[in-house]
Amino acid sequence: MAEVDTWDAGGETIHIRKDLRAPMRDGVELALDVYHGTEDKPRPALVALSPYGKELQALALTMPPQRRPSPMWDGCIEAGDIARIVKEDYAHVIGDLRGSGDSGGEHIGNYNAGGVSLGQDAYDFIEWVAEQPWCDGNVGMVGISYFGSMQVLAAAERPPHLKAIFVSGGHYDFYETTYHGGVMWFMPRAAREGRGGDSGWAFTDNVKSRMIEKHSPEELKKLVEKRLQDPDVAAWPNLVHVLNYPKNHEAWFDIVMNELDGEWYEERNPITLAPNIDVPVYLQIDQGRGWTMDGTIELFNELKGPKKLDIGSYPPMQSRPFIEEHDKMFRWYDYWIKGIDNGVMDEPAVSVFVEGSRERVTGSQWPPKDVEHRSLYLRPRRKLSTEPELMGAQHAAPDGFYQAPLTVTDKVEILDWSTEPFEEDTELIGTGAAHIFAEIDQEDTNFILRLWDSAPNGKRQLITTGYLKASHRELDDRTTEGNPYHPHTRTVPVEPGRIEEYVVRLYPFANTFKPGHRLTVELSCDEPLADEHNALLPPDAFHLPVGRPVTHKIYRDAAHRSRLVLPYTARRTAGEQD
Known about the structure:
The chain has 15 helices and 28 strands. It has 2 domains: 4-339, Alpha/Beta hydrolase fold, catalytic domain (Rossmann fold, 3-Layer(aba) Sandwich); 372-568, Galactose-binding domain-like (Jelly Rolls). Helices cover 20% and strands 30% of the residues. Mean pLDDT is 92; it is low at 571-578. By secondary structure, it is an alpha+beta fold. It starts with a strand and ends in a 10-residue tail after the last strand.
């Protein structure tokens, strides 16, 4: 047994067991630290697992929580509030995954380390914890983001002593974590390399690329040359570097090389494992980063056992160290682990914070209210209307913009359309779509949409977003009105000069537009690096810009009814009169 250190946390003493070793079934040992109260007794344990390094998580004892845009915010301090967990009489167990921190073994790719499923390691880790004298045999899990995804992977393995999980801000569909609508997202680079305000993975020397393992040097050279033919990739210095020197950035190299969905991502997709989960699951997510809401809702729908879905308020980024949602977490674990009948299961399964009205809406499913998808049409003079355009293209000439590559300009061109001011509260909850009829003069571009709630005083808040790479425009048979799906399994180049309909998925949201407010939609092919929303995100939380000059014509005439399809919970819509 490791020597016990102590820590004074505001007058309360915490016992710390440093650098314990948990053996995995293949002989690899994972390093861990344990924090618990001073009374010598077994307690339930909350396990936190990630590749970010257990020493970094210990800063939760000494660093006041930072909110974005604090320069001290570090996206990897996500294991939870150690002092609070100990105060609630749980043991906080923080471990390093194989190939990271002080643990042994190799790290290859993501979620499958050294050829071993990280869920398998989590099973062994949890069962080892349950057998220790400081644990009473009851185990839950804690932590957001990567730590949250690990909870799902662990639960799918069904370790006997895991009683429940509480997941906040998790990442699930790994393709959607790295490519939004087929557009590469840079945040995974930050998590892996430590750029943009993140410490990154605490890699050891035993890190390998799955692509390098799978392909011969000759095959890999040809694949890299093909990837560099993408003008967007070839124009971005970091990607050119990664592709030419893959051994320096193994995990990021694998992501960049796999721009299409398929087997490489499916073996890393916790959602495909959801039917195996039988423990109670509480899922929590805040609004403002729509793809995480989308994945959380998808996971919730796949779960068969006791479950809760809690969608919180904007803004999108929690504190680091992570301290939010602990009250809800302890209610959940007190019920399922300590057996305290606190009424948590008597409450509705779904709870959603509605921006605008600042109210909670509850129900048994998502969306928690009946929804009717209705259209707002893009009209001339940058208007949005419930009525479609009656004039043809010869009179309702298309809107348009030319975007030069960011290699030659730092200006991002943005088109916008707005409703008239709402005359009464108008509530929208659910998923939406944008049907954009567009003509471009290249084989590809991005369509980036952002919906805003614009107040009369000029302030505005982001409501939801949508992304689509034009060559990924194919839809699959899951698509319904207001709920499009793209398979992202192949690219279909655009015929320059041809008008195409692009159906962009608008991520889930919940907002009430108050009287006097307007709904504004923005369309661009790149995104501004700093504005009211992006200032709340880490510096790397943007998408790969278009690397070629593109002229876009946006048609919204009688023959080309470009429109938004939005989830109204009431019949009154923008522009209707008594």
